[in-house]
Specification:
Strand content: 15-25%
CATH class: Alpha Beta
Distance between the termini: 13 Å
Number of domains: 1
Helix content: 25-40%
CATH topology: Rossmann fold
Number of helices: 6
Number of strands: 7
CATH superfamily: Flavodoxin domain
């Protein structure tokens, strides 16, 4: 059975982004066992102070990457498919997702360094990013979440990056519901291709 990792950074009740993600997950082949990682329920900490230094000490003193501090990284690296759902906040995504990314970015687990530079080690061939935006930011240079996640996908060695973003969710007079429903249909169809 294949493993899909659903990284859920949808923080609001009734989140439109979660609706989009659920449509994707619900239409994913039964070949996939889905691990739903709801970030707000995890004990994630930013890499600052003692939390940073203790991690660095583990990295510096052993080539083994079996410490529990690296569990998120192993889970990410071993998934056959990565699905990230996060709303568009402050021209990017919530800080909680960045903290999670810091925790999965482990040399020797999700990437490695060598004479040729960086090389991704993740098993997944596909990363799917699902988001909703209050305003209209599709194809805008102010939309910085999309390029960051696309670049991280490449950094981790994940060859194919897919995204579905829904604009106008908070724009008065715009038919946000119709836009969301169209994206839900698109997400459902995309899921069926895996």
């Amino acid at each position: 059975m294949k493993k899909a990792l659903f990284v859920d950074c949808c923080l609001r009740p009734g989140s439109n982004t979660r609706k989009l993600a659920e449509a994707f997950i619900d239409n994913l082949s039964k070949e996939y066992k889905v691990k739903h990682l709801k970030l707000e329920d995890e004990n994630l900490k930013p890499l600052v102070g003692e939390w940073f230094y203790s991690r660095q000490e583990i990295l510096d003193t052993t080539s083994e990457r079996t410490h529990p501090r690296f569990d998120y990284a192993h889970e990410f690296a071993e998934a056959d498919l990565i699905v990230i759902a996060a709303p568009f906040w402050d021209l990017s995504f919530p800080a909680l997702l960045k903290i999670y990314i810091e925790n999965v970015s482990i040399d020797g687990v999700t990437f490695t360094t060598g004479e040729e530079g960086l090389k991704g080690l993740c098993k997944a061939n596909n990363l799917v990013y699902l988001t909703t935006r209050g305003g209209f930011y599709n194809d805008s240079p102010m939309e910085s979440a999309l390029p960051q996640l696309r670049n991280l996908s490449e950094f981790f060695g994940i060859q194919n990056f897919h995204s579905i973003g829904v604009d106008g969710m908070n724009v008065e007079g715009y038919d946000a519901e119709a836009s969301l429903n169209e994206a839900i249909k698109e997400a459902s169809e995309l899921a069926q291709t895996f």
